[in-house]
């Protein structure tokens, strides 16, 4: 008996680190830093709770049944070989999962549709066009006329819409502390809303394996105050070199690079990247002002193609 008790305690101690693994700061998705990420965090917590409602009783009942009806000479558990079913039990083990799926499905749908809108009503929306390349990330600021590689700067407390496409294999844009994942696909422009509450540097990475340089395909989202963001953009515009068409052709070639900054880029570059691979858009995206790359004629083309009103 003492030996069994010792093994039981040793097993619990071995499992303790696994139970506490999600409490560390390294699990970024569980430490949201903005309203979008908090919505996703609440959905994750609700999903875990509802799963535990099923998992815990199942493991408990399995352990009890194995212990109660184990084969031993003096076992007095009732023996009922003719027992076939129980309507009460059928209602329990079918009813509970149906309720759980219904609750989880309804909350997931509510959260999903909520995340298609700006996290706050704010007229100072910042647009950042994102192009995933092999193996780097290009960020274009159509309003500020600056561009960066492998890092981007956003203002705190302001909704930011990332408009995503790819000039390489399909990837997935992910900043765990600020938002969920959104695909980057050739020929498509998809939107992801993000907002940071406080200044800081937030880790981002491609979530789809895309070849030997995938491990280096990370980027940093730097959240700064709105005034610091404006000063940063003005500084790049005045002092950083311009990204030319020839420079973009070199940049898009497969390879790993560090952080780069540009004070200008060719007009309509984002649109050209999307158009060259088919130019398919989500029609519901283009009803919002300042949507990706809507500078001059380029933006009106996107709006009309997507079915928006071009406002």
Q: What is the secondary structure topology, with strand pairs?
A:
Layout lengths: L1 H19 L14 H34 L18 H28 L11 E8 L2 E6 L4 E4 L1 E5 L4 E7 L4 E4 L7 E3 L3 E7 L5 E7 L11 E7 L1 H14 L5 H7 L8 E3 L6 H7 L4 E2 L15 H10 L5
Parallel strand pairs: 1-5, 4-10, 8-12
Antiparallel strand pairs: 1-2, 2-3, 3-11, 5-8, 6-7, 6-9, 9-10
Give a quick account of the main beta sheet: strands, pairing sense, barrel closure. Answer: 7 strands, mixed
Order of the strands making up the biggest sheet: 11-3-2-1-5-8-12
Level-1 CATH class name of the largest domain? Mainly Beta
CATH topology of the largest domain: Immunoglobulin-like
- CATH level-four homologous superfamily name of the largest domain: Cupredoxins -  blue copper proteins
CATH architecture of the largest domain: Sandwich
Structural class: alpha+beta
**Total number of strands:** 12
CA-atom Rg in angstroms: 26 Å
Shape, principal axes of CA atoms: elongated
The low-pLDDT segments are 282-311
Strand content: 15-25%
Helix percentage range: 25-40%
H/I helix tally? 7
The residue-averaged pLDDT reads 82
Structural domain tally: 2
Instruction: State the order of secondary-structure elements, H for helix, E for strand.
Output: HHHEEEEEEEEEEHHEHEH
């Amino acid at each position: 008996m003492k030996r069994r008790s010792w093994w039981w305690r040793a097993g619990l101690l071995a499992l303790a680190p696994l139970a506490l693994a999600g409490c560390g700061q390294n699990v970024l998705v569980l430490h949201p830093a903005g309203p979008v990420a908090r919505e996703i965090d609440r959905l994750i917590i609700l999903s875990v709770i509802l799963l535990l409602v099923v998992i815990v009783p199942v493991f408990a009942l399995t352990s009890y049944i194995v212990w109660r009806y184990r084969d031993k000479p003096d076992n007095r558990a009732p023996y009922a070989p003719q027992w076939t079913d129980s309507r009460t039990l059928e209602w329990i083990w079918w009813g509970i999962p149906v309720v759980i799926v219904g609750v989880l499905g309804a909350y997931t749908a509510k959260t999903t549709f909520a995340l298609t809108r700006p996290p706050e009503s704010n007229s100072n929306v910042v647009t950042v066009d994102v192009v995933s390349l092999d193996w780097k990330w290009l960020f274009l600021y159509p309003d500020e006329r600056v561009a960066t590689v492998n890092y981007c700067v956003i203002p705190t407390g302001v909704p930011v819409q990332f408009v995503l496409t790819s000039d390489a294999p399909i990837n997935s844009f992910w900043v765990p502390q600020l938002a969920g994942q959104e695909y980057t696909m050739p020929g498509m422009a998809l939107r992801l809303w993000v907002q940071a509450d406080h200044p800081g540097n937030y880790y981002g990475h491609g979530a789809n394996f895309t070849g030997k340089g995938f491990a280096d395909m990370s980027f940093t989202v730097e959240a700064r105050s709105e005034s610091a963001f404006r000063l940063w953009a003005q500084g790049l515009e005045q002092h950083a070199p311009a990204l030319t068409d020839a420079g973009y052709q070199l940049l898009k070639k497969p390879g790993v690079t560090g952080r780069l900054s540009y004070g200008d880029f060719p007009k309509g570059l984002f649109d050209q990247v999307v158009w060259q691979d088919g130019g398919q858009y989500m029609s519901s995206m283009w009803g919002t002002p300042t949507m990706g790359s809507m500078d001059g004629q380029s933006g009106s083309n996107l709006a009309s193609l997507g079915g928006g009103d071009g406002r």
